[in-house]
Amino acid sequence: MTRKNVFATLGGIIAVGAIIGVLAPMLQKLGNPANMGICVACFERDIAGAIGLHRAAVVQYLRPEILGFVLGALIAALIFREFKPSGGSAPMTRFVLGLIAMIGALIFLGCPWRAILRLAGGDGNAILGLAGLAAGVAIGTLFFKKGYNLGRSYKQSTATGLMLPLIMFGLLVLRLMFPPVEGADKSGILFYSLQGPGAGYAPLWISLAIGLGIGFLAQRSRFCTMGAIRDLILFRQFHLMAGLLALLAVSLVVNVILGQFNPGFDGQPVAHTLHFWNFGGMLVAGLAFALAGGCPGRQLFMSGEGNSDAGVFVLGMITGAALAHNWGLASSPAGLGPHGAFAAIIGLLVCLGIGFANLKKA
Amino acid sequence: MAHKVDARGLACPQPVLLTMEAMKSTSDSEIEILVDNEASRENVSRAAGTHGWNVTQSDEVGEDFRILIKK
After folding, report:
1. Confidence band (pLDDT; 50, 70, 90) for B71?
2. Mutate to test the interface with A, among B3, B4, B10, B26 (most CBs of A within 10 A)
3. In this complex, how many residue pairs, one in chain A and one in chain B, have their CB atoms less than 8 Å apart?
4. Which residues in chain B have their CB less than 8 angstroms from residue A86's CB?
5. Residue B14 and residue A149: Cβ atoms within 8 Å?
6. The pTM is what?
7. DSSP structural state of residue A32
8. b/e for A137-154, b at 16 or more Cβ within 10 A?
């Protein structure tokens, strides 16, 4: 049976990139932090804070966008008969890769999605981050060329495939049960920020609706920021890159229209100007994303399709966020965390170790 | 006889990588690729197209997909 998937065409991926390019800056206008309409790493970090895995007071909010990404992808996968519970391809390794990817992203202060949105907001530091991301992905492609492979996944039960979507649904229920209370840093069992990025958020239903919509569209189109760079380097395939460039171009235009475009390097929102570490943090993250086969967004969408290996990567990222803030690994606008440099080096070495240890020639 | 590539259970970018390797190394004019998800099916078909191979068949076989490409 062949059913044409319009979103898998070149026009489809460009349309999806463009739609995200409109929605992300709008989320900023509606309350999300500056140059952070959507940031998978930052938002998972905020979720880690909301449920108390770390207690960094300025980054605690149960971001509905992330929940929407997984549940929107689940809905699309169910409608189009692409919900296929699978797993068993080196889950522990994927957990560690997720953990390292998050630490790298928090040294830069953003995932690949936010790197694009930061650039579209005029933040020049994002150029260093994107260059680091490309370098990390390029190193990853060298491993792929040498036979790097985490092994096959196998069919799992429907219940197993639903685990991460159900966790996200459970978090959504908690968000509804314990909404933010004016002036309070806690509501029921959830933590909230009174200041800082965690205190900036668009209205719940708008965030959730946009998250669900993007989750749906990204599942259909296979939108992946890391894949865009990887496929270009590895296969000279431009398909995913077209979507990424559409996101950049459209979000740039929308930012200019909304008055959110402020070019420069200094004083950019939730950013620092340490060029080496902007590059280095994203290099580590990019390598981890490449070795795990998807950017943080794509891992959420694949989790929605029932891929529990991707789900384990997501849990690794959330754990990594908790460690990054508990141990002073995450950067802040003031600069590097006290142990950030050390963590980046360890993370890079572990990624290289995982790469070399999983070279198999068929 | 068609050269066979079994990419079931393999994550992105392995199915495309294995297909590209097969396209380069095989002396057969036909390659049969097995994948287990729609995204891989799209990716493999797209990669074959850009390298001058034609997708002659693309069927759902049970829970998997069977793609036949010809030079």
Report:
1. confident
2. B10
3. 56
4. 9, 36
5. yes
6. 0.96
7. S
8. bbbbbebbeeebbbbbbe
Q: Estimate the crossing angle of helix A112-120 against helix A275-292, to 10 degrees.
A: 140
**What's the burial of A314, exposed, middle or buried (CB within 10 Å: 0-12/13-18/19+)?**
buried
**Amino acid in the structure at residue A289:** F
Running DSSP on this structure, what letter comes out for residue A337? Answer: -
Both tokens assigned to A264: 């420069």
In terms of Cβ atoms closer than 10 Å to its own Cβ (0-12, 13-18, 19+), residue A123 is buried
What are the two backbone dihedrals, phi and then psi, of residue B62, each rounded to the nearest 5 degrees?
A: 60, -120
Cis peptide before B13 (omega within 30 of 0): yes
pLDDT in tens, A60-118: 999 999 999 999 999 999 999 999 999 999 999 999 999 999 999 999 999 999 999 99
Comparing A31-40, A151-160, A295-304, A352-361, the range with the smallest average pLDDT is: A352-361
ipTM for this prediction: 0.93
Q: Is residue A328 classed exposed, middle or buried when 0-12, 13-18 and 19+ CB atoms within 10 A define those classes?
A: middle
Tens digits of per-residue pLDDT, A339-354? Answer: 999 999 999 999 999 9
CA distance A254 to A121: 9
Paired tokens of A84: 């296929």
Which of A89, A239, A309 faces B46 most closely, judged by CB atoms? A239
Return the amino acid letter for A239.
H
